[in-house]
Amino acid sequence: MCQKHETPLHPSFVPYRLAASYIREQLQSSTTEAQLPVLGIICGSGLSGLSSALTNTTMIPYESIPGFPKKCTVMGHKGEIVFGLLSGVPCVCFRGRFHWYEGHPMNTVVLPVHVMRSLGVKVLIVTNAAGGLNGKFNVGDIVNIMDHFALPMLGGMNPLVGPNDDELGPRFPPTSNAYDSNFQNLVLEASSNLGLSDFVRTNGMYCFVSGPQYESKAECKFLLQAGGDAVGMSTVPEIVAAHHCGIKIMCLSLITNKVVMPYDGDDDGEKSNHASHEEVLDAVNKRSEQVQGLVKEIARLLEHDGVLKGLPDLPPINLDVGRVMISQESSISGNDVSIVPNEKKTRAASFCPFRIMKGILNAPAHCVVIGGAMITIGALFGATMGRRK
């Protein structure tokens, strides 16, 4: 039985708790007896095939998970979670991510990270397809990222902006130690074991841009002069969120194209060496088998070398949702509230009234409130999320 929060939850703290509770129930009822994961993987564009290396799998589509966007809109992102064993390690693989350029708020962009933290993940492998800034890198190279440069975050586009969820992490976390040097040695060992050392690079710096447009020549020149090796439209928000909540991080970027620099002989704008998403996916397809093998070997080494067992368990997250704070700017009235029955449950939904008093939404014991800081608030009734009784 979950203990209720003493103070009301901020709406932005609700979706990941709701999703994690639902996922726990699905795993407990799974015929494959799926284990709670200790290793998490986020698949970049075209890299959803990483999940095919898992055994004893359980799949949950995003569209069935309360609080999740119904689908991924970007080609190459499947929109499902796969649980299973990777080299004997209990693992969860997110086949598709949510990007800020799709119109998602930042708390949705990092929703998979917070769900993984709630499920007990200790180590997260983040993968992405990226443009190559470093002239020494070739298309098909796999770069172990050890630092990042995020102009959008310096301007305030940051997953940690807003009220801090103290159960996840501190208000002012450092990021200078977000990437573990021990993991870089592990990547080198894994690539050597597989004979991939010729195209696995180390000490990379990833530059995060918002997208969806690809970078201009001047922007690429600026990022290169800032020390960037690879550039892309994802990853760093997930890195920051994972580090904030205590998850150890490993990041692998697959170089899918070389960015266009000034004076590359393409000033007429008519030649074909501009970046495109089709080019990205084509490069991923050519290297996907090696990326999959590398991640699988990394998982084996994490288990064989005792790295996972040596990491302490993170404190459990209280997934109970009892009372939810309503934003004072929302001007919510009774007409703004919509009730959504829990159609996914076999038991009949029972509709119980809730009331809004002094900025607090009081939810019945068997009710879960969904939604963020928005005008319309949905209530999911008849649920047994978090095993409330």
Automatic annotation (TrEMBL):
Entry keyword set: Glycosyltransferase, Membrane, Transferase, Transmembrane, Transmembrane helix
GO terms under cellular component: cytoplasm
UniProt-listed SUPFAM superfamilies: Purine and uridine phosphorylases
Recorded family membership: Belongs to the PNP/MTAP phosphorylase family.
PROSITE patterns linked to this entry: PNP_MTAP_2
Uppermost EC category: transferase
Membrane-spanning intervals of the chain: 363-383
Pfam family, one: PNP_UDP_1
Keyword Transmembrane helix appears in the UniProt entry: yes
A biological-process GO annotation: nucleoside metabolic process
Record-listed E.C. numbers: 2.4.2.1
Top-rank taxon: Eukaryota
Pathway: Purine metabolism; purine nucleoside salvage
Lineage: Eukaryota, Sar, Stramenopiles, Ochrophyta, Bacillariophyta
UniProt-listed PANTHER family: METHYLTHIOADENOSINE/PURINE NUCLEOSIDE PHOSPHORYLASE, PURINE NUCLEOSIDE PHOSPHORYLASE-RELATED
Span of domain Nucleoside phosphorylase: 39-299
Protein name: purine-nucleoside phosphorylase
Entry annotated with the keyword Membrane: yes
Molecular function (Gene Ontology), one example: purine-nucleoside phosphorylase activity
